[in-house]
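haha ok so turns out i had the wrong file open the whole time. this is the CORRECT one, sorry everyone. sequence first:
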Amino acid sequence: MIAQKIIQNKLPFIVLVTFLVGLHIFWEHYNGGVTTHHLLAREDLPGISNWWGLLSIPLLSWILISLSKWLHNKNPTTYGLSQITKGFIGGLVFGILISLLWEFRLENILQYAIWSPIILAFFIRIYLPGNLLGFILGLTYTFGGILPIAIGLVLITVSFLVWTIFRKGIPFVFQKINQKN
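then structure:
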């Protein structure tokens, strides 16, 4: 299983991610310069260079793989290897979809698609580290090494709040109300 190999030996995966980010930056450097992404896509706001991806993406990969391993070891039935793999692939596909929508300037679809993880959070746990890693890697080619992390953290945080409040909090409140009656 893919997740088991990555969790047990994360160094080859992190080296692969570092190589791919480095290859992308090398290509950008010799084809017009390394891209700088500006906040909110506005030139008057501060920019973040893709060079930061050489540090941020491998570091984040190490952190999220370690967190996935910890969660799996803590509770393998709830956070199984197949769930890690499915979450990673789902996040990767969603990140690539968002990147393609941005690249092809389909903002009318993008504005709705970006909310889909929050809607899915009502039904499944989107906030897991494997999902976040796949999502960030899917966005890295288009948005560099920092903006995907910021976007991913916002979506993961909101998804966690939705899951916690609606899947755990509301039933808890109703249970307490029924106990008083």
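DSSP finds eight helices and two strands in the chain.
again sry for the mixup
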